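Re: weekly structure request thread

Next one in the queue (129 aa):
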Amino acid sequence: MSTADEEEESYYEGEEEEETQLLNAEEVTLIATNFLRRLGNKRGLKPVKATLEEERYIVDVELKKKIATVQIDAINQGIKEYEIKGKAKEIVSSFPLTRKNIFLICGIIIIAILVSGLLGVQSFLPSLL
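Done, posted below.
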C-alpha cells in the first residue's frame, strides 16, 4: 500500500469521525432558537435547558407566555420534533403584602381612628357593644 493510499484512507476515516461528532449544548441551543425565530418568535427567547437523550437533543426555550420543547437529531442535526405549550398559570395576588402596603394600611387605620375621635363617633361604640 502506498503512502498516497494511506493518506486517502486516513482522510476518509477523519471525515467519518466528523460526521458522528456530537454537538455541544451551545450549538444545539443556537439551532433551536434559530428554528423558533423562523417560526415567528422573534423576541423573548430564553433558553432554559439542553439535554442529550439517546440519539436526540432536547432543548427547552422559554417564550413570553409559553415554553417550547425542540428535539434535534444528534446525527444529522435536523429538527425531529417541537412542541409549544402555555406556561402553568401562577397565582398572583392582586394586593401583595409588602412593607409599603402594610404601612399604608396602618396609616389608614390611624387616620380613621383620629377622624372618628374628632367627630365623636367613639361615644357611640360602647353603647353598641
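The first helix runs from residue 3 to 20. The CA atoms of residues 99 and 105 lie 10 Å apart.
Next request, please.
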